[in-house]
Automatic annotation (TrEMBL):
PANTHER family: GLUTATHIONE S-TRANSFERASE YFCF, MALEYLACETOACETATE ISOMERASE. Keywords: Isomerase. It is an enzyme of class 5 (isomerase). CDD domains: GST_C_Zeta, GST_N_Zeta. This is Maleylacetoacetate isomerase. The gene is maiA.
Length: 212
């Protein structure tokens, strides 16, 4: 397997955590999202992933998978142990709701493309961009704080799909200095993940392409 990744990409970060949790070995191929106008736009990578975004997972037989939700679903179905989703349909729906809130309602608004548009096309300064980022993270985290459990990870004693979305988004929140004191449940999950080997291995700072 090959995972096309970028150390600071939260979407790729989700997949790195899942691979580490499930003990799946994958060669990591860095794709720099900024250098040279973005290596994701190079012809070779564009041929692999027509959307020219990360992550991309190439299976051993050459099959190409894109979009982190689809990749995570594949990993869960192909490598079911340890599970990322609980047994009951209702519990799975609650986990997926938190994952979707982060993956659909927070992350896309803070992605490279909209931030680049704010800066270049809409001529917004860094203060305005930071306010934009904080607005959507704050709105989303306010809801997540109420949706997750009162102990353990997001939904119990073992990490699951919701945690794979939450921890990378927390990394982004801290990167952009978004205040987090109002979210004790979320911070509890962050503290637990900080000592878990899979989350530690997947952390951006520990990637081969990490920058200072």
């Amino acid at each position: 397997m090959r995972l096309y990744t970028y150390w600071r990409s939260t979407s790729a970060y989700r997949v790195r955590i899942a691979l580490a949790l499930k003990g799946i070995a994958a060669e990591q191929v860095p794709v720099h999202l900024v250098r040279g106008g973005g290596e994701q736009h190079a012809p070779a990578y564009a041929a692999l992933n027509p959307q020219q975004r990360l992550p991309t997972l190439v299976l051993d037989d050459g099959t190409v998978l894109t979009q982190s939700p689809a990749i995570l679903e594949y990993l869960e179905e192909a490598f079911p142990a340890p599970p990322l989703l609980p047994a009951s349909a209702v519990a799975r729906a609650k986990v997926r709701a938190v994952a979707a809130l982060i993956g659909c309602d927070i992350h896309p608004l803070n992605n490279v493309s909209p931030l680049t548009m704010l800066r270049r096309e809409m001529k917004q300064d860094e203060a305005a961009v930071s306010a934009w980022i904080a607005r959507w993270i704050t709105d989303g985290f306010r809801a997540v704080e109420q949706m997750i459990g009162e102990e353990g990870y997001c939904f119990g004693g073992e990490p699951g799909l919701a945690d794979l979305y939450l921890i990378p988004q927390l990394y982004s929140a801290r990167r952009f200095k978004v205040p987090l004191e109002a979210y004790p449940r979320i911070l509890r999950v962050e503290t637990l993940a900080a000592t878990h080997p899979a989350f530690m291995a997947a952390h951006p700072a520990r990637q081969a392409d990490a920058e200072g």
